Every structure is written in structure tokens, then in C-alpha cells.
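RECORD TYPE: inverse folding
INPUT: C-alpha cells
STRUCTURE:
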């Protein structure tokens, strides 16, 4: 029997809109979801984590270091995008970031520059085809 290709490890920051990202990773043939991050421990975030059978983290850096994801999906309010994206890129992950990329042009440029320097992909999602 041939070896199966190893699936990409994915994490999601943000459990509200991020639940859509979690579902997409869970249904993917090439990815598997390995964790979800929330700013706070709360019942709703825990329910989402339980639904996808992944741990809920409230420490983003801990999630990145424990999971060592290939891809990080950022589905939080825009003001949080820069810090979360930079940390994920620094950890070696590619980043899929919800629209808009960031709350300021300068912040967005830092994210683009960090992606270029790291050799990782930074993608911005703005697709309502399946929403």
C-alpha cells in the first residue's frame, strides 16, 4: 500500500468567523485542523473547538510552538491581524488572513514585508462564493 501524503497542519485564530475556516480545513483532503485560538477561554469558543475535535488555546505563541502549523488562518478583527500574522510567519507558517489585511496601511506593509522576508505566503481572503 502506498504511503499517504502527509496533510498540512493548520491552525485558526478566531472562533467566530474562524469556524468557517475550521470547517474548510476539516473537509479538506490536503489539510487537517490542529488548533483554534481565542483571546479568552469561553463556552462558545470551547464548543467550536469541541465540534472540530481540536484543542482551544488562549496563548497564541503556545499554539504555534506546540502545533508547528504549516498554515495559520487569521479570522479576527483587523486590529489583531498584524501581531498574529507576524507571529505565524516567524514560526514558519504560511498565512491566510481574512479581509481587510489590516487596520492601517503601515501595518499591512509590515505584514507583506515579513512574508517576503520569511519566504512564506501571505494571502488575503475576500471571497463570498460559498458564504
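DESIGNED SEQUENCE:
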Amino acid at each position: 500500500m502506498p504511503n499517504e501524503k502527509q496533510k498540512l497542519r493548520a491552525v485558526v485564530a478566531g472562533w467566530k468567523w474562524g469556524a468557517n475556516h475550521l470547517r474548510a480545513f476539516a473537509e479538506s483532503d490536503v489539510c487537517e485542523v490542529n488548533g483554534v485560538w481565542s483571546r479568552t477561554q469561553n463556552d462558545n469558543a470551547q464548543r467550536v473547538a469541541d465540534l472540530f475535535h481540536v484543542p482551544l488555546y488562549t496563548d497564541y505563541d503556545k499554539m504555534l510552538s506546540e502545533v508547528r502549523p504549516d498554515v495559520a488562518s487569521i479570522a479576527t478583527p483587523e486590529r489583531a491581524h498584524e501581531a498574529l500574522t507576524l507571529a505565524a510567519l516567524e514560526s514558519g507558517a504560511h498565512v491566510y488572513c481574512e479581509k481587510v489585511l489590516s487596520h492601517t496601511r503601515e501595518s499591512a506593509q509590515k505584514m507583506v514585508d515579513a512574508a517576503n522576508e520569511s519566504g512564506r505566503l501571505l494571502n488575503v481572503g475576500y471571497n463570498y462564493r460559498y458564504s
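NOTES: The mean pLDDT is 93.
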